[in-house]
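Much of what follows relies on a compact textual record of a protein's fold. An example makes this concrete, so a full record is given next.
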Amino acid sequence: MSVPPAQVILLTGTPSAGGGKQSFFGAIGCASAIIFTVFGASYGTAKSSGAIFSAGVLRPERLMQNTICAIMAQILSIYGLVASVIIANGLEEKQPLHTSFLQLAAGISVGLCGLAAGFAIGIVGDAGVRASNQQPRLYVGMILILIFAEVLGLYGLIVAILLHSKSGTGVTDCSAF
């Protein structure tokens, strides 16, 4: 009785069992990292830019000061780029399935955290720019809330780096099964 190749890969996790197809999951993690963080950065930039320009009509002297929202949104895409490069450098044609799953988890971690942070930055930036344009004392509060929103993406990057650092050191022998 022969075991189907998919079960051999899942049970053994060895590169020779899968013919090198395990790196697919790592590649999906690499792509997820950049795709989702760029979606978050795009949303944050677009949402806050509408408020920046509409507020700039009333108070053009504050236009450059209010662009901090769009700048902070773009930092999220840098987090995704860093994670994607780290994951891509760790990809090999024949690697243990364990490594590929950790790379997938790393990419999804930074990607979804960046997406959530982008939504938060966009919404905070939109409301904050409009409010601080009417009451300039609210600007510092807006910056603090933007920092709290930005750090969500940083948490995802830290988790992604930790997951990827474990991907090369894990035990892939599943002989207990």
Q: What stands out?
A: Residues 14 and 165 are 19 Å apart (CA to CA).
